[in-house]
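Retry 2 of 3 after timeout on previous attempt. Resubmitting structure tokens to design endpoint.
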């Protein structure tokens, strides 16, 4: 029997981001609801067809989403909070967008549900909210509609759903934390999923996939029994030959594999890229039930390098020693890789052949499955295998001896900034003369169509560099003037020169490659285009010095320099697979250190080094936190700024407030100030900061920039009071929760005016 191939999920945004354009057009009113739906349907058809043409056996459906699959799951289960339903929209899409983005208009004024990073990816999901009044039941026909839509096109698909365990572990009830999983809720959720399975059995589906990435996390008390009870109910609903695939990814499930085996799933998906060793050991130790197929996730869904077929075959051969029932699968959804390398002709075929995006990974699946089937002789003479091997034999990467020498010369002292923070604090206070509760922003101002159009004109050669630079200077003049007018304390230059906080830096570093169209979804319709680390990294030229010093020359206020930190650059790039992340991060740290010192020389007195993505890559298992990550990531950050004068104030920014558990590590970055997102999520981080006697000054975001709403002065004051209840006023900064580049001018300036007014009011209250 030929080896079955399966795809966990496929990118939905479209080869040319058609879905993004349709949805954003709909939001702006330039695309009708019908036209948006048509685009969505066309994309689904195209994506199913491309997988079919590549010979994929189990093609996913219901991996499509207008915004986020977790939000879809909440809608499926009727877990939509009252305040959104009360808006009374006719089109379900409008309710969905109101939950995702907030709504402010004639129907009401509601904030969006919080968004969080999907495990260790840069994809954000909407955190479902379950109210005590929520009645969980099957409330949407989306999965069935899409299954039937595919069938009408002659394509039998494997419906994919976020599983009940992951759903419940990620959902929250703001009035009762943690979520109370009394038997009622668990039973209702299990019943709803059983109803889904039963309906698919009626429709004649052969496989239904439940994604349970949460299983790769450490288990808390009650988790195992929750998992068991959910799936006992669901599996009992099998009939009509429908098979259930329990799909896990982003790590290993060794601690619960035995339980999984006992439950008798028809298929178990294991991540054999990220959780390879532990998963293989568990399978070897426990075995595989005779009725279960192992879906061997050997095709990496998280990176873009070509699969090493010899390694994948080794894994499959090892599994075959345990069971004959092995399917070949992607290790996770392909949502996290770009669509196709075919657009990347400017990189040259010699380079591009090293990469596989989603479409090329379909070929890899096929190749590995055929080779898995082949005997030793056939493998020995296989030209497919030989061509693949050649990719790994050659010397692809550009190494740089000077970079290695510089790393070797580092000593412990290079990782420590002196004098200590309290001493610096005193000196900086004198130097900067800022008021109590200083106001600032996170760096970027709206990247309007005008800004992007100028960049496109430069790229196309319609204007020259001098004209473009003059345009950017004009934007800086404007934004400096405007910030002065509304009374912000610490100004920024606005980041108009950058397309993206990582790509822009990469373009000025040696060792990076850039793609033309390799977009991946980050949240909603937002996509990012990570650069590729292709060799040893060093700074090619000063990056931001010109813009920051120009901005500083236009004002007597302090202008904050704005850099991206090494951990974030690596986390938001496609890293090399031939050397460690630690080494790549250290190379980047030295490159950014050069920039920090040049900014200081140019008279910049506050420098923000964004580590927006530091929290995101914290390993999912607690036992890996330090040894596999923090032990080198935190020192790398210190290496970036340890060379500055005591009076130079170092800021950092994180897009994530969930660092309660690593609060001491964050403090050990030894920045002088940290700003972070805290407006969409809860404020428990404030307790953690308080309890940990955190020494870094903090700017917890006082309003949510991911939504177009304008927060009122009163709302912001309420937020500031919550912050001051936990943290001494002389350590608090007032800022939005992230950069403003995705926002329009129309909401940005009124929001910031309200922020400044709120800070002034509270300052006055405090001095009374
Ligand atoms: N300085 C960056 C900006 O304002 C930070 C962005 C981020 O945290 N993602 O855009
Ligand atoms: Zn941010």
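Retry 2 succeeded. Sequence:
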């Amino acid at each position: 029997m030929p080896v079955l191939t399966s795809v966990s999920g496929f990118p939905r945004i479209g080869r040319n981001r058609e879905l993004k354009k349709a949805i954003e057009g709909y939001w702006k009113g330039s695309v009708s609801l019908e036209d948006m739906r048509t685009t969505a349907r066309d994309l689904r058809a195209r994506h199913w067809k491309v997988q079919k043409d590549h010979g994929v056996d189990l093609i996913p459906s219901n991996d499509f989403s207008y915004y986020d699959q977790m939000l879809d799951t909440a809608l499926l289960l009727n877990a939509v909070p009252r305040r959104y339903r009360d808006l009374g929209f006719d089109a379900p899409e409008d309710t969905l967008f109101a939950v995702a983005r907030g709504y402010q208009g004639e129907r009401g004024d509601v904030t969006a549900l919080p968004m969080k990073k999907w495990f260790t990816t840069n994809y954000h999901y909407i955190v479902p909210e379950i109210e005590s009044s929520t009645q969980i039941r099957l409330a949407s026909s989306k999965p069935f509609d899409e299954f039937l839509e595919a069938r009408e096109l002659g394509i039998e698909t494997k419906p994919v759903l976020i599983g009940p365990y992951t759903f419940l572990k990620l959902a929250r009830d703001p009035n009762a934390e943690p979520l109370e999983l009394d038997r009622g809720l668990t039973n209702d959720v299990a019943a709803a999923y059983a109803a889904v399975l039963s309906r698919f059995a009626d429709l004649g589906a052969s496989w239904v996939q439940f994604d349970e990435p949460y299983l790769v996390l450490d288990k808390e008390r009650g988790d195992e029994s929750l998992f068991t009870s959910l799936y006992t109910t669901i599996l009992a609903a099998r009939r009509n030959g429908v098979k259930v695939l329990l799909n896990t990814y982003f790590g290993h499930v060794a601690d619960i594999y035995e339980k999984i085996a006992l439950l008798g799933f028809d298929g178990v998906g294991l991540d054999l890229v990220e959780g390879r060793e532990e998963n293989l050991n568990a399978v070897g130790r426990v075995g595989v039930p005779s009725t279960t197929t192992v879906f061997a996730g050997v095709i990496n869904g998280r990176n873009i390098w070509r699969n090493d077929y010899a390694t994948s075959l080794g894994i499959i051969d090892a599994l075959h020693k345990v069971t004959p029932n092995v399917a070949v699968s992607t290790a996770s959804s392909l949502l996290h890789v770009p669509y196709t390398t075919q657009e990347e002709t400017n990189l040259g075929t010699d380079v591009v052949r090293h990469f596989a995006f989603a479409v090329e990974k379909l070929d890899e699946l096929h190749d590995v499955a055929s080779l898995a089937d082949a005997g030793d002789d056939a493998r020995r003479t296989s030209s497919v295998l030989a061509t693949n091997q050649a990719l790994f034999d050659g010397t692809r990467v550009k190494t740089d001896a000077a970079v290695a020498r510089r790393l070797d010369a580092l000593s412990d002292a290079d990782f420590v900034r002196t004098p200590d923070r309290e001493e610096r604090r005193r000196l900086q206070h004198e130097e900067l003369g800022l008021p109590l509760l200083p106001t600032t922003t996170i760096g970027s101002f709206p990247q309007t169509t005008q800004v992007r159009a100028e960049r496109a004109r430069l790229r196309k050669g319609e204007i020259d560099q001098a004209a473009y630079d003059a345009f950017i200077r004009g934007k800086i003049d404007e934004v400096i003037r405007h910030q002065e007018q509304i009374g912000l304390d610490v100004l920024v230059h606005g980041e108009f020169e950058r397309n993206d906080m990582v790509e822009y830096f990469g373009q000025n570093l040696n060792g990076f490659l850039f793609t033309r169209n390799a977009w991946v979804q980050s949240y909603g319709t937002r996509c990012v285009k990570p650069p590729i680390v292709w060799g040893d990294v060093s700074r090619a030229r000063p990056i931001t010095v010109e813009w920051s010093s120009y901005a500083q020359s236009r004002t007597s206020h302090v202008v904050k320099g704005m850099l991206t930190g090494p951990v974030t650059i690596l986390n938001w790039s496609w890293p090399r697979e031939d050397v460690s992340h630690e080494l790549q991060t250290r190379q980047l740290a030295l490159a950014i250190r050069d920039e920090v010192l040049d900014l200081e020389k140019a008279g910049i007195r506050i420098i923000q080094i964004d580590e927006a993505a530091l929290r995101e890559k914290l390993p999912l298992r607690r036992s890996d936190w330090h040894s596999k990550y923090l032990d080198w990531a935190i020192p790398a950050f210190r290496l970036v700024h340890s060379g500055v004068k005591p009076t130079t104030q170092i800021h950092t920014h994180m897009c994530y407030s969930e660092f309660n558990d690593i609060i001491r590590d964050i403090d050990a970055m030894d920045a002088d100030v940290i700003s972070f997102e805290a407006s969409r999520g809860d404020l428990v981080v404030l307790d953690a900061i308080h309890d940990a006697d955190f020494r870094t000054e903090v700017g917890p975001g006082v309003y949510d920039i991911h939504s177009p709403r304008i927060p009122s002065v009163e709302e912001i004051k309420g937020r500031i009071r919550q912050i001051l209840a936990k943290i001494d006023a002389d350590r608090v900064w007032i800022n939005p929760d992230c950069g403003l580049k995705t926002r329009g001018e129309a909401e940005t300036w009124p929001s910031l005016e309200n922020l400044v007014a709120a800070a002034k009011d509270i300052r006055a209250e405090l001095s009374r």
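Attempt log closed. The CA atoms of residues 174 and 682 lie 8 Å apart.
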